[in-house]
């Protein structure tokens, strides 16, 4: 009886030592966001800070970003052997969520920050490799709604709003198991920036 109790205690302790990420996953794989980038003030891609013009030469356009995502396995020491890594451990990214926050704590959607949204995607990331995933940071629809629509009345950077975009990547491995969602953050400056002459 004491031996059975001892075995149960050891098993419970072993289970309790699992990685926290594994609590959200039934997969042997997990995702890491290597980088999040968008366009700088000159419109050049690859910036870690996004500049969102609420109206450009009379038009409203989306602001795009790129998430570079890696797929890894929970036990790299064992899985590093070629026969341990299988095709079914590769991960298909199937959704990206974007949610907005402000550093001053004013986070009411449609009043202080734009509404959050989800976008379906379908890109495979192989284990121990990376993939670049384009996504929308700020939708053109958000620039026609509060609070961004009010920025049109203040041209040439007179009023600038700082947002933090929380970007969450979802996926599942090719065995059909969900992987733990992973999030990263991107600074976004919104204003009616001066148009190029």
Descriptive notes:
This protein has 197 residues and is mostly beta strands. It has 2 helices and 9 strands, in the order αββββαβββββ. The strands form 2 sheets. Strands 3-9-8-5-6 form a 5-stranded mixed beta sheet, with no helix packed on it. Strands 2-1-4-7 form a 4-stranded antiparallel beta sheet, with no helix packed on it. The longest helix is centred in the N-terminal third of the chain and has 15 residues, at 2-16. It is elongated and about 60 Å long. The model is unreliable at 5-22 (pLDDT under 50).
Largest sheet: 5 strands, mixed
SSE order: HEEEEHEEEEE
Helix content estimate: under 10%
The tally of strands reads 9
The gyration radius over C-alpha positions equals: 22 Å
Low-confidence runs: 5-22
- The proportion of residues in beta strands is 35-45%
Instruction: Indicate the structural class.
Output: mainly beta
Annotation keywords:
four-stranded antiparallel sheet; 2 helices; 9 strands; mainly beta; 197 residues
Layout of secondary structure:
Layout: H1 2-16, E1 29-39, E2 45-47, E3 49-53, E4 63-73, H2 76-79, E5 91-101, E6 117-125, E7 130-138, E8 161-173, E9 182-191
